[in-house]
Amino acid sequence: MGRKIRPHIEYGSEFELDLAPLLAVMVKLVPVLLVSSAFVQVMMIESDLPQVVQAAIEEQEKPNKDEILAKIEILPLKDRTLEVKVTKGSDEKILRVPASNGAFDLKAIHNKLVEVKTLNPKVFKIEVRPDAEVSYKEIVKVMDEARKSRDIKNVYPVFDAKQGKDVTTDFMFPEIVFANMMEG
Amino acid sequence: MGYKKRMSGPVKKNSTFTLNITSMTDMFTILLVFLLQTYSTDDVQIIPEKDVNMPVSDSTRNPIAGIKLIVGKSQFKIDDKVLFAMTDLNIPTSAIDPKDTNFIKPLFDQLEAYNKTLPDSDRTKGRVLLQADGDLPYQTLRKIFYTASMAGFPQLKMITLVGGN
Fold it and tell me: How far apart are CA A1 and CA A6, in angstroms?
């Protein structure tokens, strides 16, 4: 039985981690990501709808309904006044939102559209008829105000055929049609 | 002078030294996390044009595939091809059909050519992605909508920047 040779272990010793390979990977990865990253986020405007709302719009477009749904038109005018025209059968009502400091009063427009939606909860489609002089960015802003309710308390009932019951949505007028596109 | 020379120790030539790269690795790790967060995995990449100051919207829908119409202050482009130069945010009269003031002839021809070559299964069929400057008046947009729908592209998707309220 010879004497056992025990390896000499140095406890509490310091060692240096070799970070060079990690750095090499990062140096390659960072330029690749820099080239392919999207720093400006872009989105798209169209019917951005949950399926129940989409079904409600399709239901609205079906003819032969007992209930006559209102036709809602919004007219952004060149003096930056917004007119909301609500037609139900032979009854036509025109609501006006005057301009504020030479621009569309977006908050007042939103409140007016909430009022209109509350009176017509089954209507999800509106027609936009902007004046020729109104700019694209102003039209987009008005469309933003019409699309969704900003207050979480303002929700509207929609019948979900899959669940067989009424559910609520914060979408007001998600389907927006440019009605005067074909006019001269 | 002589004192300084005597006090400075022996100069080691050809000696190796270890570079401390820990802080550099930290910096790269932060950068990597940031870039991974901004990395977009969408199948449609929209690169904003210099000339086009797109409107800001609170829409949250991601862009989908379509024929790209880029309408800036100075140029009208379809995909990467310049169709004509704009005049004061308007379509030049040379591009308008004299019989129909809403009809943009070069745009119609180009879209019609696309429509003929694209198979029915193509995802871009009938769909136009409009990247337009926010200052364009509606009268210019209306001409574009009208011509696109006449050429068989009724689905108009408006590209906007993220922002809003």
Answer: 15
**Secondary structure element (H or E) that encloses residue B158, with its range:** strand B155-162
Model-level ipTM above the cut of 0.90 = no
Distance from the B116 Cα atom to the nearest Cα atom in chain A, whole angstroms: 24
Query: Which residues in chain A have their CB less than 8 angstroms from residue B21's CB?
Result: 19-20, 23
- Give the three-state DSSP class for A77: coil
CATH (domain of A96): 3.30.420
Asked whether residue A23 is domain-assigned, the answer is no
Give per-residue pLDDT as tens, B108-163: 999 888 888 877 766 666 788 889 999 999 999 989 988 888 888 888 888 888 87
Give A100's contacts (C-beta < 8 A, 6+ positions apart).
A108
Q: Is there a domain that residue A50 lies in?
A: no
Q: Which residue of B has its CA nearest to A128?
A: B138
Q: Which residue has the tokens 């200052």?
A: B135
Structural domain count, chain A: 1
Contact A39 B101 (CB under 8 A): no
CA-to-CA distance for A29 and B28, rounded, in angstroms?
10
- Identify the CA nearest to B53 among candidates B77, B40, B71, B78: B71
